[in-house]
Design goal:
Layout lengths: L20 H23 L9 H7 L2 H18 L10 H11 L2 H14 L4 E7 L5 E7 L10 E7 L6 H4 L3 H9 L4 H8 L1
Antiparallel strand pairs: 1-2, 1-3
Helix pairs in contact: 1-3, 2-3, 4-5, 5-7
Amino acid sequence: MKHELMTLPYALDALEPLMSKETLEFHYGKHHQTYVNNLNNLIAGTKFEDLSLVNIILESDAGIFNNAAQVYNHDFFWNGLTPTQGEIPASVEESLTKAFGSVDKFKEEFTAKAVGHFGSGWAWLVQDENQDLKIVTTINAQNPLTNNLKPILVCDVWEHAYYIDVRNARPKFLENFWKLVNWDFVAKNLG
């Protein structure tokens, strides 16, 4: 099975001014595309060739894992953003309040973990096997699937996600991120 670069659910300039078209051209059009290309090249003629992205992540390591996980992580990141952010659905607000005390407390804790993450990686809202919500960070291409955690929301904290727009100001990137979160996507992932 050949993996394809996902089609964004919005135009490249739709997230402006919070996330520029130039950022999406590089982040989505070059970085994300390269992971897809690398993955297809690495799995050709191997036992991974006909597996789904999730199965490749769960069964591979090294270069194949890194590229498969980065495709998955970026797909999840782009789907978690929207140019037309609506109200937080009541079900999401209820879940976040139960787990963190309030939506604002959740955002504060998530932001602190994302900003404080050393180096490249990801900040995730996840659900464990008991349906409890947690905030975790992962390094490089790692993601929660390998720890039997269900991804709910992710923020890419690799420098290429924000350097064009805010240089090295990761806190400003997180401030912009909250204005773009697709809460309907979060609700869907919560079930």
